[in-house]
Amino acid sequence: MIEGWTALALSADLPPGVAVPGRLRGEDLVIWRSASGRLRAWGDRCPHRGMRLSHGFVRGETLACIYHGWTYDGTGACTLIPAHPDLEPPKSIRTQGYDCREAAGVIFAAAEGTGAALPDPGSLAPVRSLQMEGTTDAVARAAGMGTLADGMVRGTVDLDGAVAVALFLQTSGAGMTTVHALADRAPLAVSDWLERIREIVEG
Amino acid sequence: MITEANLSAWYPVGMAAAVGPAPGRATRLLGRAIRLFADAGTVRVTDDAGHELSVCTAYGHVWACPGTPAGPVFALPEADQPGRRLVDCGRVQVRCSALRAVENFLDIAHFPFIHAGILGAEPHTEVNRYEVAIREEVDEVWATKVSFYQPQAARSATGGVDVEYMYRVAAPTSAVLYKTSPPRPGEWDVIAIFVQPLDETTCDCWPWMALYDDDTPLAELIQFQQTIFLQDRSILENQIPALLPLDPGMETPTRADLTSIAYRRWLKRRGLTYGAQAVAA
């Protein structure tokens, strides 16, 4: 079976020049966007001393580790070891790569070389992400939207009129789910509704 | 994993000046609950079952050995040199392996990034060649001829200087650095980190100093060290894995890491595996 894509964040929450942590099937990831807007997802470990790269800093088209400034280009290759600025880093020093794409205002990641198609939420707009304490199944049940397909549930919610909603459900920790919500209208009402879902899930 | 080598080493368990009467200070050592308290003028350390641990007092701290001590606590002759100010810096608890805390203390390449504006500053990031040896006669790791540009090398420093260092691993979880003393360029200031492994992934760091500095108020000296250690903590609690890998392959050292390479080799050779990642077969 081909491992599919997992939604990790909304595009709007990751502006250029920023690195954030993410979580994919139990693995810690760093997701970052370069100054020119290129998006990358890697294992959240600097190959040097295992420091989390999500604490690092983006400079131009590179991400540098906060610990010793080891700098990685968009291909994940180490291009600078500041302790030895004249040394050309060995080609073997690379970050752990993941596939990372965005569609419909959502950032997705998958194992490198995945052949799976990106999930398609249709013409809905991103609303917000929200973390809750509960499994993805519990969140899907609370939302009353049937079973998960492609990491997504979708349906219609009555919020002073029918609103088409899609929820990407991401396991973001042990027993934790992050919901990335999209809707065709009424983002504030959808946001309030998500808070109510969280209250139900967290009991 | 606790080995005989781990059990026969000395570990700091508290500041000597702060030991009170029973029940005293409750803490942990190598995952085991212990207490230290003053009893008729002597310091005692016991575990929950009432067993006595070997105890001694040195360099402002109480040291305990859970097994049979392999020898006395390491020598630090600077502690007895006249004119030096001995400073207990208190405790910084860190959720990391004691070995990662020591390794970080031995590292200079992180100064411009983690202690920016204090112990280092970009673009002065280059680590010059230095010398590392395992001194068999004392069973210690030494790094010498280390030098680095620092914007504010010490509380008593004014302006940037090239600072010379020596580093010394004096015990499995204790390290000492010697650095140029700003008021006395011909002498070394001594800064040590005594690390108490509470369990494999939590430790208490007890920084201690022997300085030539009669002017800076005590509170400022302590504040300076606490600032440095709190900056280090943000790193130490975010390294993956939490345990220190002793085998090559998991992490990628460079020439600036010669001290770390020697420390890991020394730990592995002596079987000091508590706080280290299980060695691959």
Radius of gyration of chain B: 18 Å
**What value does the average pLDDT of chain B take?**
94
- Quaternary status: heterodimer
- Taken in chain order, the helices and strands of chain B follow as HEEEEEEEEHHEEEEEEHEHE
Key structural traits:
heterodimer, A: 203 residues, mainly beta, 6-stranded antiparallel sheet, 4-stranded antiparallel sheet, 2 helices, elongated, B: 281 residues, alpha+beta, 3-stranded antiparallel sheet, 17% helix, globular
Helix and strand layout, with pairings?
The complex is a heterodimer of chains A (203) and B (281).
Chain A: E1 6-10, E2 18-24, E3 27-33, E4 39-43, E5 57-59, E6 62-64, E7 71-72, E8 78-80, E9 97-103, E10 106-111, E11 125-133, H1 136-143, E12 152-158, E13 162-173, E14 176-183, H2 187-202
Antiparallel strand pairs in A: 1-10, 2-3, 3-4, 4-9, 5-6, 6-7, 7-8, 9-10, 11-14, 12-13, 13-14
Helix pairs in contact in A: 1-2
Chain B: H1 4-7, E1 11-15, E2 25-29, E3 32-39, E4 42-47, E5 54-58, E6 61-65, E7 85-88, E8 92-94, H2 98-105, H3 111-114, E9 131-135, E10 140-150, E11 161-171, E12 174-181, E13 184-199, E14 202-211, H4 218-236, E15 244-245, H5 258-270, E16 276-277
Parallel strand pairs in B: 15-16
Antiparallel strand pairs in B: 1-6, 2-3, 3-4, 5-6, 7-14, 8-14, 9-10, 10-11, 11-12, 12-13, 13-14
Describe the structure.
The complex is a heterodimer of chains A (203) and B (281). Chain A is mainly beta and 203 residues long. Chain A contains 2 helices and 14 strands. Chain A has helices at residues 136-143, 187-202; strands at 6-10, 18-24, 27-33, 39-43, 57-59, 62-64, 71-72, 78-80, 97-103, 106-111, 125-133, 152-158, 162-173, 176-183. Chain A has a 6-stranded antiparallel sheet, with no helix packed on it. A 4-stranded antiparallel sheet of chain A has the order 5-6-7-8, with no helix packed on it. A 4-stranded antiparallel sheet of chain A has the order 11-14-13-12, covered by helices on one side. In chain A, strand 13 (162-173) and strand 14 (176-183) form a beta hairpin. Chain A is elongated, with a radius of gyration of 18 Å. Chain A starts with 5 loop residues before the first strand and ends with a helix. Chain B is an alpha+beta fold. Chain B contains 5 helices and 16 strands. Chain B has helices spanning 4-7, 98-105, 111-114, 218-236, 258-270, and strands spanning 11-15, 25-29, 32-39, 42-47, 54-58, 61-65, 85-88, 92-94, 131-135, 140-150, 161-171, 174-181, 184-199, 202-211, 244-245, 276-277. In chain B, the strands form 4 sheets. In chain B, strands 7, 8, 9, 10, 11, 12, 13 and 14 form an 8-stranded antiparallel sheet that branches. In chain B, a hairpin with a 2-residue loop joins strand 11 and strand 12 (174-181). The longest helix of chain B is centred in the C-terminal third of the chain and has 19 residues, at 218-236. The model of chain B has no long low-confidence stretch (mean pLDDT 94). Classes of the chains: A mainly beta (203), B alpha+beta (281). At the A-B interface, loops of A face helix 3 of B.
